[in-house]
Amino acid sequence: MHSRQSFLKGAIQGAELGVHSGSRVVEGVHAAVQDSVRRRVPVSVPGPGVTGAVYGAIRSLTTLLAVAGTRGLDWAGGDADPDSRELQPWQLHCASAFNAAWGDFFHAQNHHWALPMGFACGERPASFTAGVPSWLSASPSPHLVVFVHGLGMNELAWQNPEGASLPERLSQDFDCQVLYLRYNTGRAIHDNGADLAQRLEQLINEYPVPVESMTLVGHSMGGLVGLSAGHQGLDAGHGWTQRLRGQVCLGAPHQGAKLETMGNWLTHFLNYSSYSAPLALIGQWRSAGIKDLRHGSLRADDWDERDRDDVAHFHPHPVDPVPGAHYLFVGTTLAGIRGGTLEKTVGDGLVTPWSALNPRLHAPAEDRIRCKRLDGIGHMGLLDHPAVADELVRWYGQQRRRDAVSAQGSR
Predict the structure, then answer these.
(1) Separation in Å, CA 212 to CA 146, 191, 197, 404, 411
(2) Domain residue limits, the chain
(3) Angle between helices 221-236 and 189-206 (to 10 degrees)
(4) What is the reported pTM?
(5) 118-257+314-409 classified as CATH 3.40.50.12780
(6) pLDDT tens digit sequence for 13-24
(7) Nearest alpha-carbon partner for 151 in 89, 238, 221, 81
């Protein structure tokens, strides 16, 4: 999705999908009521063939209207002014939210709202590329810092209208090149991790200057995607893992997110009644990315012989830490919450400190891992809170000093 026209086409496709899905839910409830009435009251009611034909006709008409609308946009061709066709921030936010809910379906169907993975400048939605960014200077910094957003978000989430953002703090205090990742958060975390590993390998191979160090900073799901990328990059023998010096996870649900667990149980209970079972379809249609958050899954083999909608709890496979890389894990709680049941269930509003500070790393080197707990900060506050920025700057500074000492020792 790169223009207003593609956004409008996606909106038409989304409206068609909404009518089709909604009609199937209503048709299911209607059928359950009809069946109940047919068993209890000796009156004639329309058969399932009649009602099925009506709902089918509604879906067919919707498809015809969607095709006509899409072709109409192609025929109109958009405005003459290129700036008027440029994707706007609110349109990117809208598409990002829908990608979170149904992004895996969008990707499979080549939907116009399916967001591709690539790098963005963080200011204009149109400044986006799947390869090496064209807006870099001829001689950018050899020290890369890639920021990875969380579920339902995009690169604009890192902006801070009230002060310096986390990326800006790093750029001001250190010689580094900041890049922002944009991706479809509805896809499975391991799929996004595999794509990120490939993008980073392409980036270091085509970067204008030799890359000396790379750091990944992920918020929420973004932290899990970064860990999955490191695991898959190691398995593939990628060169970027040798340049990876650090990974940061801000409020990442390593041990799972309780909100997704509760949503899965609600979907499970809705199936117990023939009246509510059609409503369970809405929950079952949620994306693979959201379902991965239930356990903090990082690997494809976590779901071997398992149903993503199963309510049974299991422990996903851990991943190996990248050799030579240091890790920072940050967990927070809302104001006034410390200890007790609220901390274990509410945490920062979405993720508990226990989940955020206990990564699924296999045999981690304790001297390379720092876990920091901060109180009084909500989940979204991790994106721009001064205390988080101070911790990130302090940790990144230590990382750069270690690299400088190592470089001097190797001479």
Answers:
(1) 14, 27, 17, 11, 15
(2) 4-108, 118-257+314-409
(3) 60
(4) 0.87
(5) no
(6) 778 778 877 777
(7) 221
